[in-house]
Write a structure and sequence with these properties.
The chain has 7 helices and 7 strands. The chain has helices spanning about 15-30, 35, 50-60, 110-115, 150-165, 170, 180-200, and strands spanning about 70-75, 75-80, 85-100, 125-135, 165, 205-210, 215-220. Strands 1, 2, 3, 4, 5, 6 and 7 form a 7-stranded mixed beta sheet that branches. It binds zinc ion (ZN).
Length: about 240
């Protein structure tokens, strides 16, 4: 929700908000069989993304909504921003890999100057957490913006399986020349996933790669189908790796 701060320092009175959410949503859904609890689900199945949309519709008359975020479990959630049948679905996953931050075109001293400890010759490892967000239009019958099993398979087959337990610099050809910083890995994952996700009828919205508790990178989807023309935005939150 969003709004101006009132004289009491609040956007909204939290207990009023909780009361509305409980009255309009949670008290009705809790311990219910979703397919039968609300008439909205008689035709369109209650997927996470469609449930988020319907919760928005039911709360919007009472609350200044900006976004509904609904977690099915900690590794799958939907975001709905109030735009007709458009929604976002995020799958969270992880892989473990080693890398060395050093350009083959620079001397060891130059690489140490730029990348610090990350340039040490034999590499080091990370447990990478990956969040892939796709955007699409909810199918009015299935309630899905993309087939979840196929989406999971694309991420597993294209990224997780090829990257897991590798030395990125040597095992992934792309990183023979490109230094595998979190930003560059996120860009490469975005480029690998763009077309397979498009073939599932959705579009890749965002790749977030969390390299360590200290740093992560976010890259947004390509605006056109030609990767040469599209700009990538990487936002490292902290440069220490
Ligand atoms: Zn590192």
């Amino acid at each position: 929700m969003a709004g101006e701060l009132d004289e009491y320092g609040m956007v909204l009175n939290l207990s009023d908000v909780k009361h509305v959410i409980k009255r309009e949503v949670t008290s009705q859904l809790d311990f219910s069989y979703l397919n039968e609890v609300w008439p909205e689900f008689a035709y369109t199945l209650p997927t996470t993304e469609y449930l988020a949309k319907v919760i928005w519709d039911r709360l919007a008359p009472y609350l200044p909504l900006v976004k509904i975020q609904l977690f099915e479990h900690p590794e799958l959630w939907a975001d709905y921003l109030g735009n007709a049948m458009e929604a976002y679905l995020t799958i969270s996953t992880h892989f473990s890999a080693a890398h060395r931050l050093a350009s083959p075109r620079l001397s060891y001293e130059e690489n140490c100057e730029i990348y610090g400890k990350c340039a040490r010759p034999h590499g080091h490892g990370h447990n990478y957490h990956l969040e892939v967000t796709v955007k699409g239009v909810i199918d009015p019958r299935t309630g899905m913006l993309a087939d979840l099993a196929q989406l999971q398979a694309v991420i597993d087959d294209t990224v997780v399986e090829p990257f897991d337990h590798t030395f990125l610099n040597k095992d992934i050809p792309y990183f023979a020349e490109v230094v595998p910083t979190a930003e560059n890995i996120a860009v490469h994952i975005r480029d690998l996933l763009h077309e397979p996700i498009r073939q599932l009828g959705a579009s890749l919205h965002k790749v977030k790669l969390i390299e360590s508790p200290n740093n992560s990178a976010e890259v947004y989807g390509l605006v056109s189908s030609t990767s040469e023309n599209a700009a990538a935005v990487a936002l490292p939150q902290l440069a220490t790796v």
